[in-house]
Amino acid sequence: MLHAEPDSSSHAFHAFSELPTGLARLFVSLGLTLVFGVFEFGMAEWAHSLALLGDAGHMFTDSLGLVIATLGAWLARRPPSKHQTYGWGRAEVIAAALNALIMLVLVGGLGFLAVKRMLEAAPTPVTGWAVLSTGLGGLLLNLLVFRILSGGGHSLNIRAALIHVLSDLLGSGAALVTGVVIVWTGWMPIDPILALFIAGLILVSSLRLFGFVGRVLLEGVPHGLDVTRIGQRLTEVEGVCSLHDLHVWAVSTEQVALSAHVVVDRLEDWPALLDRLAEALERDFGIHHATFQPEPVVQKIPVPPRPWHPRAT
Fold this sequence. Notes:
By secondary structure, the chain is mainly alpha-helical. About 60% of the residues lie in helices and about 10% in strands. It contains 8 helices and 3 strands, in the order αααααααββαβ. The protein has helices at about 20-45, 50-75, 90-120, 130-150, 155-185, 190-215, 225-235, 270-285; strands at about 240-250, 255-265, 290-295. Strands 1-2-3 form a 3-stranded mixed β-sheet, covered by helices on one side. The radius of gyration is 26 Å and the shape is elongated.
């Protein structure tokens, strides 16, 4: 079995070089989001704005989501044990699934309040200047948080946190537009209309995140990898007669595993052949964790070479 730990080098950049890990970035993002969420909730109550209230609720939901993401990232760093031989990498996947569920709950609540407000006989008065200034502040804060998280790697938890921040950007943008329209035109229905619009955008993001989570939990081939191409490349390695029972799946968001049965002409050449297989996987596909089962040729019958196919036996 060939195993190499994934690269854990720093992804820091420019002004954020003091944050060397995705975990640290999650902590900083959590603090900024939570503090502004408290402020925005107070402003939403004072201004009577549903768009601002929805964005404040989104901030609090994101804070909870970032807590879950931070916990998942911390668990994923724990080493393998006799009970968890692959480590805790799947904790990130579970945390990302919880984040998506939280987003769906937020969508339902925000959509309900928006429709209720639209059906009111008399529009609820909203303080436009308060909504405008708070929305602008939220927009700038979320741009900062997005920049911090963007340098934290490409794990599923960082991706989930970025989706939260992107939806927050949309929410703050909607609040900003709401304030501008109310201040310049006095048209109050813009508040629930934009709240309902942003709820739909969050729903799309949540469903996409569920798709990523489902692929990992169902042990599907990770995005960016073609199992047919991998099989063909391995059969091109000198010494390989044929290949079957090839499986490629994601153990965690950053660790890909592979297993296959390799038919060889001479079993005594297996150690050298194993090194060549490992080199091909690492160089061409970035796969560092592979398990190969060598098998001798049962009957030497000349067969014309043909491209490898997943259904080949």
